[in-house]
Amino acid sequence: DGDACSTHAHSPLEAPSFPRILSRQFLPVKMATQAVSAVAGIAPQQAAPAQSAKASGFASGGVRVPRVAGLAKGSARVKHVTRASATPQGRPSPYQFEKDMDQLEAQQSALGQARLGAYGVVVGGALAVGAAAGTATGSNAAKAVLTAGLGAGAAVAVASADKKRVSAAPKALWNGMLNRDPATITKADVDAIGAKFGMKDMSKDCPEAVTELYDAYLQSIVPMGDDPVQGWEPEALRNFRQQLGLEDADAANAHIEVGRRLFRKRIELGDKEADLESRREFQKLVFISTRTFGEKQAKFLLPWNRIFRVSDAQVTLAMKESASNLFKNHVNESGAINTLEAGALAAARAYQQELNLKDADCAEVVQKLAQDYVVSKVEAASELAQVRSVNSDFTEANKLLTEVLDYNKKMAAGGDALPGLQVVTLAGSSFEDKSGEANTLFRNFVTQGTESGEFSAELKSSAGALKVLFGMGNKEAEEIVLDVTTKRYRELLRDAVKSGELDKAESPAKVLQSICEKLQFPPEVAAEVNKENYRTKMEQVMEKKKLTDEDVEALGRVRRLLCVPKDVVDECTMDICGAVYKSAVLSALSVGTESFTPELRDRCKRAKDAVRLTDDMALKILKNEVVKAFMAYIRVARTKQNKIEQSKEIRKMVYFNSTVVTPMVSDVTKAAAEDAAKELADLLKEAQAAAKKEEEDEKKEAEAKAESEEKKEEGEEAKDGEEKKDVEAKADGEEGEDKKAEEDKKEAEEIAAKVEQPTYQKEINLKEEVDSVTAQGIYQDYLMFCMQGDTVNAPMGVQITIERDQSEFTRLSQLGD
């Protein structure tokens, strides 16, 4: 039958039943056996009607953790009755089912160390019975034969019974540990059971039986399904193996066998979900096994690659996932990532090294935990910011954001304390897509930070860190900061004007510059804000469509306080005040040549004076509208069928220019023309005065020279003659002066007459709007029209040419200008 301890732990441990042995032996053997039982003090008994191994969830002779049977494919998957918990305390024992023994095995277990004495009694008794039977026959030969036969039969019976000792030992060991916690089992307990069967060290005499205990314990502590590895399993297995005195090689066989069961489970269940679950369980087994034996020894004892055809990458992944989960749980329990305390970080670092977790994998776990912590803070801040309040107080939300920024500073300063200690961002988190909420938090943070009227360096640094945290772009963050500081600048500017600070300041520009420097506000943006305020003020005073002296004074004050430059004032005046004049101009230009009246002209002049436009501004507005009117004539002309009709339309434009445009242009340029004429007249007067003075000087020099030559003339005659000459010269000078003044007056009147009655204006033209080729074509067509004259269509398709009008050439000259 063989030795049960020399076979595999999970091979059937069956031996021939005791009745079958008796059937092959002599009757004395039965008697001897009964004698053995009598010596042991045991009454003959049948096998206990206990639950069989197969029915109880075990394979024949093998050890299995009981499972729920009878589940079809697609239903709930088979689960172990026992599950891994956070700690080994309170776990059900893996030895919950008793193994069946036959009668002889039960007798061997009951005999214990009295077994050898019983064997001797049986053999001795058989010899005595043989001798007695031989004596009864009266023959010495029969006596010897009977004595030898019965003795040999007793010896065979004893040998067969001793084989049951070997098969009963593993079962007795298993049953002896029934419902016991493996952590409480010691080598002394195992050897005590082995001693009953004549085994001093069961781990050596019958290692398969001890391996069976280890196998069951290993199977029970491998987490099933989604249950994670708790971390105590490798240490518990090492302690249990040491307590049992089990060799590493024998224990490794148990690990391989558990792996085979998990591998078979994938095939037996046959669905994707079960396959995935079995893979996860196998990964946990690999991790626990490697941690149990150590990486170096595990590579030799546990050839996963060769037996299960898995790659090194798969083994590495199994180690990584379980180690990462354990490290994550450890860090969560210690709060090392949330508090960043040096002691907790050092403990986490030591645990990482204990798990042999790579720095890259450790950093991944640390960064994920840190990000989760930051996300929880930011989401709480977002919820607080969304709560509507009367005063829009964001203190609590900003407090949480400040905590996050301080946390990031600690993370950046963590250094090499633990891999993964670096600045946390929300990229890849659940808050990444909530850009609207992130912008709101950023805006609120900057708004509250600038309440004191200062954008400090600390606030700038915090805003930059918050921008990195939210993953905002530079442009996006700058726009928010600019918008917030712009509002704050407006508030500070309003307060400065209301309080009179700007009015009292010697230099309002210095006050405005100080505000910009405190807010780190761009001066060009501040200038735009000041311009907008000035424009708003002008729009307010222009609601009545005119400017009074008070309005002009108020605008001057605002301009001085806000340091608005002249070009900005002119631009606002053109846009706002010019709109009133523009409206009047459009009304005058829209009536056409025939309906234009002096009243329309006067209305334009009154509008210009009411809004106090300068001539240059008025001329610019007028030019824009007149150019549009000229281009309208040209567009209409291009739609005509022939050159003559086109030229007639162009002639309307010339009429429009001389009748409507010229008077209106003269109204806005008359003052300039008068000033030019006056300046010219003053220059002429100055030139005439200079010439007269020069002539008088020359005359005096000539007289002085003549007096020096007439030395010998007598006194009275010379005196009379000299007086006579003076009178004549004076008369001549007065006469020349009157004549010159009369000429100057006449010339000034002529200039004034030319200014007062111009023929047509030349200030507004289409030089910039019409290219030279088009202009030449229009001029050429009109020239031909002037030369050929107008035509009239007569009956029968006859065209009659009217006599040419010489005045068309005058209009041609205007068209050229």
Explain what the structure shows:
The structure is a single chain. With 817 residues, this protein is an all-alpha fold. α5 (140-176) packs antiparallel against α6, α19 packs parallel to α21 and α21 (474-499) runs antiparallel to α23 (508-519). Helix content is 71%, strand content 1%. It is built from 32 helices and 2 strands. A two-stranded antiparallel sheet has the order 1-2. The termini are far apart.
Number of strands: 2
Instruction: Catalogue the unreliable spans.
Output: 6-87, 113-123, 752-758
Q: What summary fits the major beta sheet? A: 2 strands, antiparallel
Distance between the termini: 134 Å
Q: Provide the gyration radius in Å.
A: 61 Å
Helical residue percent band: over 70%
Order of strands side by side in the largest beta sheet? 1-2
The number of helical segments is 32
Q: How much strand?
A: under 5%
- Based on CA inertia axes, which overall geometry fits? elongated
> How would you classify the helix and strand content by structural class?
mainly alpha
Rounded mean pLDDT score: 76
Brief digest:
It contains 32 helices and 2 strands. A two-stranded antiparallel sheet has the order 1-2.
